């Protein structure tokens, strides 16, 4: 890749985003999208034109119309000196088909040694591959996610694995028992308790001639929590959803006060499907998930819908568990509003992020920076032992 408009990678991305904003499609790009583009390029080889183009396309496009014209705009900006055949007919062929064919032809005709020398001559100019490969394990899911509001295709049946289900059931039982061992802050009448109830004792004495034979007591009742498990089913989470769905099924089998939701670009309640699945002799499956599975990521909007549509489920006895990698380009104001309301209404808010076990992952990036102040626990759970410790020594706020 040569003859770039500007000298550095950052300058090229800033100028390219400015160019896209003034096109007919009016790409909605800002500093955050430029930063996400830099992160996406860390997961690809900068010397491979096709990988660079696909990485930028995933981040900068937010609808189908923009995807159709992105390939032509990319080549017009970065490779102005390179002639392309039939560029005016954009919709007659799949996007990127002509570019990929030209790239393969040029790679086949080029000499690897000459290409290497050409890169060394240019140094750090433009999108030139450095001497060492840039690797960031936590950035790999960035390529799977559209990082937009674009919905995926109609989701097929999702199978819940049964391997190690018995161990997961034990973990769910242990987790539920840990919360039930605690007591609420309120007081209720009891035959024995910590506090003497004078008024109730005097009323009872009316039936015994004024003698307080049956004293009344009060105590803190045992907490019987309700669990809300909210699972991110977008493309970037596909490597982790099997284990999380298995835990959701195990939790539902061990406690009746469990509600399970999945979301991608839309939110869907799947509690009844899990209730039916646990009684089947075959592998449990989830069906008819629609746009709640396998599409883009819209965390803030779906959590806000959860708080508004199912507000009756989020109470002082509710433990809300959100399982998501936090890769989202939605408005942080919406996510902040949703989490603030859930935090105020619930007894505890837990966020499971599978990327926490990845090297060099920084939770202060993306939407996690907005979510962290509202979380009672921020952790990663990938095996039954870790799931069993989710509520260990968790301080309930209500």
Q: Could you walk me through the main structural features you see in this protein, from its secondary elements to its overall organization?
A:
With 398 residues, this protein is α/β, with parallel strands linked by helices. It has 15 helices and 11 strands. The protein has helices at 9-21, 31-41, 49-60, 64-78, 97-109, 112-122, 141-144, 165-180, 198-205, 241-254, 271-277, 299-309, 332-345, 368-371, 384-388, and strands spanning 158-159, 188-190, 195-197, 216-219, 226-232, 258-263, 267-269, 285-286, 318-323, 348-352, 377-379. The strands form 3 sheets. The chain has a 6-stranded mixed beta sheet with strand order 7-6-5-9-10-11. Helix 13 links the parallel strand 9 (318-323) and strand 10 (348-352). The longest helix has 16 residues, at 165-180. It is elongated, with a radius of gyration of 28 Å. Residues 82-150 have low confidence and may be disordered.
